[in-house]
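Q: My labmate handed me this sequence with no annotations at all. I'd like to see what the chain might look like in three dimensions before we decide whether it's worth expressing. Could you predict it?
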Amino acid sequence: MPCPYSVKTMRTVIGLEVHAQLLTKTKLFCSCSADYFGAPPNAHTCPVCLGMPGALPVLNERAVEYALKAALALHCEVLSRSTFARKNYFYPDLPKGYQISQFDEPLAVNGSLDLPKRIRIRRVHLEEDAGKLLHTETGVTLVDLNRAGVPLIEIVSEPDLSSPEEARLYMEELRRVLRYLGVCSGDMEEGSLRCDANISVSPDTALGTKTEIKNLNSFKAVEAALAYEVHRQREILERGGSLTQETRLWNEKTGQTEPMRSKEESEDYRYFPDPDLVPLQVDDAWREKVQKSLPELPAAKRARWAQEYKLPEYDIAVLTEERPIAEYFEAVVKLYNSPKDVSNWVMSELLRLVKEPTEITITPEHFAQVLQMVSAGQINRTVAKEVIEESFKTGKAPDEIVRQRGLEQISDESMLAEIVARVLAENPKAVADFRSGKEAALGFLQGQVMKATGGQANPKKTRELLSWLLNRDLTPPLP
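A: Here is what I predict for the chain of 479 residues:
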């Protein structure tokens, strides 16, 4: 059958359902620890999260507060009343036989996230996580219920994304927002941030047949799976075929999506109000209190820095990626008002030492002191790098490190002149090379001076002295 469509006329429509685990100490409806990662299987369980008869859920107030933070940061309308429902389906990792979620009355609706293209957020709602299945090589499947009952928010976008790359950018920005708020770790490899993607390809403005893709546990997987699905759906339509609404799994090893099951509709889950939980009421006072607690968010920070600090886009992107790094940078700039200089040092030296953004062990005061010492000519840049590293490891003040190790830069001209004269006398060939027009010899001689002083010679003054002495008629005598 001839192809009825042109590739250029194909329209891709993508919507994402993002599940973010909230960083509460306990689960959503019981007092079991929510810090399950690495714990022995089924160690963090109780009658409530195991669904034992007679066990009653009690809502975690901190989880609601964190969900409110996310909803308000995403410019959502927080509803004064929301309700919990039972989402019924059978799966071995769901001990109650249903998941407590929110359906027709969610916590918040009608939000947005700018990429800068505005992506509308349909809803943000609370729900509990399921357990985890572990498939062994022998074909046995084990069930770990430590995760069952951990609080989640589900963030559902409108189908406003039009490419796999845009979907990845949306996920990256959403992760930044949640990490800035401190409500989710965003560790996709640990499962604390997960994504299901809905995608359709159509030859016109109408929405095509929707396919859901599961098992997307990295930004790379989100983009790659959607790119594959765009190709697969286009190929079917170009052949004159039709698409089936279904759920597919992303197989990272093969780089392909694979059929999982036919796509469920909401009626398949037989939602009904949970009889054990009263409606959640959020009044204006609570909403306003949470709103005031929100930090400056990544997009606003990037815009302000561009105007206030005049930094390149690359610097801004790197330094605003993590809130602790961004706040550290601003603290240093308050003490040493040279934003670009601070940016260079933080990106090259601090980020080299930091494994986790929350583990910066050199204070802003000490970091600024190093930069001030470089600017004043007390130490050179090579020494400054050593001082930053030692202060990071030991917590000692930079001036104390410099004093104890004798690292202060040699700027005294008479002392430098003696060392330079000695180096020139010891390297007559390099002197002759320079005087015959080989400029590179100057760099070699400066390196010899730095070597002779253990890197402590003032580079600028050393070069000036070398140039002056080399351009004299006579090589100075050895002192």
